[in-house]
Each structure stands twice: as structure tokens, then as C-alpha cells.
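Q: Here's a chain of 356 amino acids. Please give me its 3D structure as C-alpha cells.
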Amino acid sequence: MTATDRERDAMRRALSLARRGPRGLNPQVGAVLLSPTGDVVAEGWHRGAGTAHAEVAALAQLAPGAAAGTTAVVTLEPCNHTGRTGPCAEALIAAGVARVVYAVDDPGERSSGGAERLRAAGVDVEGGVLADEAHALLDSWLTAQRLGRPHVTVKWAQSLDGRAAAADGTSQWITGPAAREDVHRRRAEADAIVVGTGTLLADDPALTARRPDGTLYDEQPMPVVLGARGIPDDARVRRHPRPVLHRAGNHLFDEWGDPDGSLLAELRDLGVHRVFVEGGPTIASAFLRAGLADDVLAYIAPTLLGGPILALGELGVPTITAQRRLDVASIERLGDDLLIVAHPRPASGPTQEGTP
């Protein structure tokens, strides 16, 4: 049985509820309970570590026994393990829920298996409903579960002929106001923003997330600067609301297999879940070369610069058969500019997988 229109509508509502929950170590999850006739009878979402999971929060809205025969629509496969709270699969079974519709499989080694447990108890289960929307919401948590590291987005701006700056090194501004506004919104959604010292010294970026009127977003990413050269005392990043993390050496990318020597492991241990790599060609290429990019954002301006400063450098592609293919998720027009959002395809080579 495939999902009904009412179940799909309920999943959209569950995704909206999930966004109310905090981002962090735990996933944002929403749940909607439907009566046998398809009417919404209860809703819930996960409010943070140690609180009731979304399914249990929804069940708590009903009187004992009132959930019998209902359909639970959940953004994430109900968990099958006991942590700070009990397994949601067992709670749904005990409540007499007849059907469970969910969007994304739980990849956790300990928490997965809820769908199988539900089916074994005679509950009808349908997975993968609005999975793309749920993946977009849960991407950083899913990356952490699968790879044990933060989710990495690599961004660059370029001219139509693939240049990141003019021949003299100036690069402000290649793209227009709409593209820059989009970048700042994405900065505000990240936990850390990463640039190299080359970009820092050339552009003197503040590395803050700012609204169009120039005011700061409430949430600011941690500024991370990579490279052996020092940060000038009068650099704008020194006035960032958060302290700068400065680390030297691109070897930090190449040792992901050794958590003690990895930049991403250090950021993970600092509570960082979403990393926004923004500047410039050396740093962006290093993350891509190491297979540590989960998303790619390319802002393309309809202008020509020529010259030697390319948007990307060496990627370890000696021949066309080794090219690094991307799956395009979206193409959006932002003023005169284009934004291409893409995801690197998994590859067989260890440097492209980026797994520990």
C-alpha cells in the first residue's frame, strides 16, 4: 500500500513540526496521528535531548486507548532502542497504532530496526514518503550518524569562465546582492564557517552572518581559519562575536582516518554539526580532493574575468575517467546570478569516500 494523499499532507505537517525542534546531537523529528478516517487527532515533535520523542509526544495528547487503529506519520523511522527514553516502536505497538508511515530510515547502529519491529508486531509500515524533504531537514544529523563527522558544505563564487578573482586578486564582488544575501542566510544555519588564510588576507572577511540591513543574525557560526600564516591583529574576524579557531596545515584534511589529527573530528568534539567551507580555491579544493564535501554550492555570475585565479585548484583528477561527478539537486536564479546545488557522488576510491 502506498501513502495516501492525506498521509502525504500529514507528512508535510510533520516536517513543519520537526523544524520547531532544536538542531544538535539529536534529530529534528515531527509526528502526526491520523484517525482511521484520515483526520488529524494529535501532533508532536522532539523538543531536545532527554525529552519525549515525537511519536510519544503525539500519543500523550490522547486518552488511554484512543490511539488504537490510528496511523502514525513520522519524519524518521521510529527508533528501536532505549536511551534516555524508551523505544518509540514499542510505544506505538503498545498504543495499538495500526499503521506507520515514515520518511527516512534511521541509520543509527543502535537505534535502527524500528520498522522491522513494527512489522513483526503486525503493524502496517510504509517508508520513504517525502524522503527528499526529510533528508534536506536531517542532512547534518544523518551525516553524523553515517560518517561520525560534521556535515560539510563547500561553497564558492565564480565568474562564468570559472575564475574566483581578477588577476590582481580582487574578488569583491563577483556576485550580486541576492546571491550574497543567500550566502549569509546559509552562514546563519551553519555551526562553523571555514576559510583559508589566503582569502582572509586578500578580502579581510568578517565571517559573520548578516541580514540585508547589516545587522547580525542571532546565531553566528564559529569562524575557523586554516593556514600557516598568522591572522593580523586588525583583521575584521578579530571582532567576530565568537573566538576564532586558527589551525595550520592542509594535512588536517588528509588524516580523517585518525580522529586525533582531523580538523573535522576537532569540530565535532566542539559540538559542530554543520560546516560551511567558504574560502577560497585552496581550501575548497582540499575538502573536495579529500572526499569530505557533502554539498556543493556554486554561485555563478554572468561575468568574465580571465586570468590565472581559478575557482578550484587541484582535485586529484589525472584523467577524464577519474572525474568527480556530481548530482545536481537544484538550479536557482538569484538576481543575475545562478546557484547550483549539487551532491558529490560516492566513489570507490578511499580519498573520495571520506569515511573513517
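Q: Can you summarize the key feature?
A: Residues 5-141 form a domain with the Cytidine Deaminase; domain 2 fold (CATH 3.40.140.10).
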